[in-house]
Amino acid sequence: MKVEIKPGFAAFFSLMTLLCGRYAAQFFAVLLVHEAGHFAACYLLGGKVRRFSLRFADCEIETADLGYGAEAICAAVGPAVNIFLFFLLKRNAPVFAAMNFLLASYNLLPVWPLDGARCVYCLLCTGKHAEYAWVAIRLCGLVICSALLIFALAAGVLWKLGLWPLAAALLLFSRLALTAERGNGCFFSDAAIE
């Protein structure tokens, strides 16, 4: 397995360490268990991880030997691990549990390239009209990102939350826009791209 650490990851690591303060170690532990869930599911389903890339606010796993159904399961397992840890630890480690819940909630949004969109995309690809899956998931992501931008603006103005909601919504919207050139293949497996 090839591991790549892109320059943006150092910036992300520094930013999150600054923002999370004394909770930074817990934040990165939440990310670690999320990605470990993806890895474990991939290996249990007979896949092979060929490349793991750490980038700014993003991790990418490239695998081989997975079909669309197995790929959907692999995408779902990361957030499922976070949800499990939320329920398991919400009384004894509330901050860690809350971080798990927030990461799972974010990743389950059906916005490409997040796990929720990958699950939906792979499930749509199992039908006879896989070429429409990419269009459907992109439109869904556009609608959700637009709604989040409007909500973020309202939250910033009406509830005086500052620029944080808008910055988070713009980050998600930019990720959606930047993946337009990546084609219609799934995150986990190039074997599913045909």
Overall description:
The chain is mainly alpha-helical and 194 residues long. It contains 7 helices and 3 strands; from the N terminus they run βααββααααα. α2 runs antiparallel to α3 (68-89), α5 runs antiparallel to α6 (130-158) and α6 (130-158) packs antiparallel against α7 (164-178). The longest helix is centred in the C-terminal third of the chain and has 29 residues, at 130-158. It is globular. The model is unreliable at 181-194 (pLDDT under 50).
Structural features:
single chain; 194 residues; mainly alpha; 3-stranded mixed β-sheet; 3 strands; globular; disordered C terminus
The gist of it:
This protein is mostly helical and 194 residues long.
Find the structural class using helix and strand composition: mainly alpha
How many β-strand stretches? 3
Give me the Rg, rounded. Answer: 17 Å
Largest sheet: 3 strands, mixed
Categorize the overall geometry: globular
Number of helices: 7
Order of helices and strands: EHHEEHHHHH
Let me know the average pLDDT.
82
Cross-sheet strand order for the largest sheet = 1-2-3
Percent of residues in helical segments? Answer: 55-70%
The termini sit apart by: 23 Å
In the predicted model, the low-confidence regions spanning at least 5 consecutive residues are 181-194
Fraction in beta strands? 5-15%
List the topology elements.
Layout: E1 2-5, H1 7-20, H2 24-44, E2 48-55, E3 58-64, H3 68-89, H4 94-107, H5 115-125, H6 130-158, H7 164-178
Parallel strand pairs: 1-2
Antiparallel strand pairs: 2-3
Helix pairs in contact: 2-3, 2-4, 3-4, 3-5, 5-6, 6-7
